């Protein structure tokens, strides 16, 4: 698969202004092969990570993101086609694994780095709460948005760097391990089982996940299923009864489901919010009643956020505005006009401070509810401006051209301009709408 050229090429010496993490420069990880062993009770993770890398400048060394408590013990480099690459030294500091090569690796070399590491994985504490690998009462989960991936594997942890993955993990019986993509192999031996998952679809590191628990699988439809503890299987069947119909509904609007199938995991623990990963979503047992909107929301992230990834966190509204609007579209389909939700949330926004720039909210407010709701109403304003046919045709083209890639607002705008021209709407009105809703603090008029 050809990866669309990544556009947010960072300038040396700069860092992600949301996560505060320095960019890892000069190379791209094409593929991650993670070979993991996990012991649930001591919460011990041992790993061998092999990263297939190509570089677009001479590399005397490189950095990867890896939490300090996951200790790298050995790092081995192998060059392709007779190119000799060798690791001279490596060290861990400041959340980075810093690798120095014996000789600089010439530009455009394909090589692999194998990192042998291990530790007791734990979440990182951030402005947004605990992120990454987290122990449950019985098992563990991984929910990494935006920068939790280095809590369990060495990676280039920035949303615009997508790669394919193979994740093999061995865990104690009777635990089930769920990860991204297709289960391609399952081997039992002794008191352990090894699960191998593969995802050929490009994936951002924050969307890579591992779920460990005493789960059973229940089918929810043609290409969707849930993993849940036996005690909550009946409730889960009820809560997710419309999952297949939702999936079919979104396919009708946005084009084919981007991945092979859709999985939900319901943990026995309560979770503050459900969380999306690529090809799957994680819900807490507390979401089994009254949370239809979140079931729709998380599913829609498979198109908006996962297949179409953001290039930088400034654009988080492209994920959350669409996912929130998808909730309302589902309710429209089941009988509640979108306008009712728009009016309700507009009124709620009027009661909140109007001091957020939705199009670049900054780290503190990146998950603020106003990004979600105002982002969604922005889309409604565009729909009202263009009419249903032109608006949804534009969204379908946007989803199609950004599939398994990264997108920026300009990609959506391009399709909106075309839609405007097709219905004789002045394209500058697209700019005006986006500017007023996303880049000015005051609430514009409610779109009707
Ligand atoms: Zn969301």
Automatic annotation (TrEMBL):
Signal peptide: none annotated. Gene3D superfamilies: Neutral Protease Domain 2, tricorn interacting facor f3 domain. GO terms for molecular function: aminopeptidase activity. Residues 240-421 form the Peptidase M1 membrane alanine aminopeptidase domain. Keywords: Aminopeptidase, Hydrolase, Metal-binding, Metalloprotease, Protease, Zinc. Its cofactor is Zn(2+). It catalyses: Release of an N-terminal amino acid, Xaa-|-Yaa- from a peptide, amide or arylamide. Xaa is preferably Ala, but may be most amino acids including Pro (slow action). When a terminal hydrophobic residue is followed by a prolyl residue, the two may be released as an intact Xaa-Pro dipeptide. It holds the Pfam family Peptidase_M1_N. Its EC number is 3.4.11.2. Coiled coil: none annotated. Transmembrane segments: none annotated. Residues 30-207 form the Aminopeptidase N-like N-terminal domain. PANTHER family: PROTEASE M1 ZINC METALLOPROTEASE, PUROMYCIN-SENSITIVE AMINOPEPTIDASE-RELATED. Belongs to the peptidase M1 family. This is Aminopeptidase N.
